[in-house]
Write a structure and sequence with these properties.
191 residues; mainly alpha; elongated
Amino acid sequence: MSDPGNYVGSADRSIGQLVASATAEMSALVHDEIALAKAEVRQDVKRGAIGSAAFIAAGVLLLFTMPMLSFAAAYWIHSSGLGLAWCFLIVAGAFILLAALIGFIGLRKFKKIKPPEKSIASAKQTAAVLQNAKPHPRASIEAAAIIERSGGSGSTLAKKSDGSGSAVGSGVGTGVGTGKDEAAAVARSST
């Protein structure tokens, strides 16, 4: 690529060489773009892993502070003159009420979840269209072209065809298969 004669402006290169050079350069460009994308994704994954580890550590520390806050709240209530056991029961009751409220909110959100109706309707519509789809008419044209190119005994059957895709002569007992049917099967398998 460092040779100045390899560039498009060089007059002594053929079109094939130019196409090969362009293909090689395009391939190198695609490989470089893929490598760049991999490097960027690697950096993002590393940042995401560090960020999620930081969130997990913060969550664990908050989890460890819950008993401390519970004890502090119970002793703060105890400072008003109430018995210590009652203070701990009040704090536990507050946590139970808070958990019940959060659970109720979560339950309401789960009940609002519905199946993806638009996607299901779209999939049913697509299935209905595909069930009613007819074969592409090009397959029979390709089959006729194959028969004509074969030039063998199938070509006479193609000429005797009644236009509906079935040959008039069946070729039974003559050792000659229906060329059009065989060609149609080949055309269908190749599409």
